[in-house]
Amino acid sequence: MTNVPKKIIWLASYPKSGNTWFRAFLTALFGDCSVDINEMNASVAFSSKAIFEHFTDMDSSNLYEDEVKLLQPEIFNEAALHLQEERMFVKIHDAYILNKAGRPIVPTETSKCALYFIRNPLDIVGSFANHKETSFQEAINDINNPMLRVSMQNEHSSTNTQFRQLIYDWSEHVISWTGVLPFPVMVIRYEDMLMDSFATFRKAVEFMRLKASEEDILHAINASNFDKLKEMEEKSGFREMETKSKSFFRSGSMGNWKKELTDEQVESITDRHRLIMSRYNY
Fold first, then answer.
1. Buried b / exposed e across 116-134, counting CB within 10 Å, b at 16+?
2. 29-38, 202-211, 242-251: least confidently modelled range
3. Distance (Å, rounded) from C-alpha 133 to C-alpha 243?
4. Terminal alpha carbon distance of the chain
5. Phi, psi at residue 198, to the nearest 5°?
6. Could you tell me the CA-to-CA distances from 69 to 143, 210, 255 in Å, in that order?
7. Contact status, residue 27 vs residue 107, Cβ threshold 8 Å
8. For residues 137 and 139, what is the distance between their CA atoms, to the nearest angstrom?
9. List of residues 6+ apart from 240 with CB closer than 8 A
10. Which of 144, 188, 200, 250 is deepest in the core (most CB within 10 A)?
């Protein structure tokens, strides 16, 4: 594919690292500075079966994971080509990997750039456990699992609204998205989104080359405040949440691990992920 417009902006993250919060911000930025968490129109999901079936005109229920990964790059190239708007935001939790044909599952041809949201894995534990309705130890096992997949299906059939997603462990996921990629990647720490929201969101807007004034950014940050998102979920639920957990939005804070995890649990994470954690000041 030559002279193809690069429209896709990837919103990539390990689960529970700020991706949904940022999508709410984008919804407010391009809307009327208001957010309905069940009507967020700022992105589509890479793992969506609906998009896959729309562009392939096939029932994907019985496709193997490898078959899906072979087709996904072509599907999102087509989606970008058919898009009338100048950009397309795509949420993705998959690690940046190659498919069986040796091609990245993320298409190079139509990709403009990526934002990679990273969060202290010690704080991910509580959020992940809450999301999956599992124990902290089970969440730690997932974070340390070198072959972790989410949206698991029954045997080989794809019965959920999302395809299986290969995540890897936390460190390998980070490495996969922050290495040398064929498009620019900006790393955004969840903690910076909390501590210096305006500067962090403004840098992201500038990196993506979006047109937005400082006033627009401030209003969008206020409209997508974590407490407001949590309040909306309590009132109306959150339909993106496929699990049976009581809430998607937990506390949104940092440092909860200090009172939630045992010394042994902290050590099991830091021993495995020390190198990458130190790289990002965790």
1. bbbbbbbbbbbbbbbbbeb
2. 242-251
3. 8
4. 41
5. -60, -50
6. 23, 30, 36
7. no
8. 5
9. 20, 37, 38, 248
10. 188
Write out the two tokens for 276: 């990458």
| Single-letter residue type at 230 | K
* Amino acid present at 46: F
CB atoms within 10 A of CB 155: 5
Residue ranges covered by each domain of the chain: 8-279
Q: What is the pLDDT of residues 125-180, one digit of tens each?
A: 988 888 778 899 999 999 999 999 986 555 555 557 888 899 999 999 999 999 99
**Looking at the domain 8-279, which fold is it?**
Rossmann fold (3.40.50)
Q: Which of 17, 3, 20, 2 is nearest to 238 (CA)?
A: 20
DSSP-assigned letter for residue 38: G
Tell me the whole-structure pTM to 2 decimals: 0.89
Give the chain's length: 282
* pLDDT at site 274: 97
Token look-up 């999302």 returns 162
* Residue 140: other Cβ atoms inside 10 A: 24
Q: How many CB atoms lie within 10 A of CB 65?
A: 16
Maximum Cα–Cα distance across the chain: 54
pLDDT tens digits for range 223-261: 887 666 656 555 554 544 555 555 444 556 788 899 999
Rg of the chain taking only CA atoms, in angstroms: 18
Q: Alpha carbon 265 to chain centroid distance?
A: 25
Written as six digits, the tokens of 218 are 């401030």
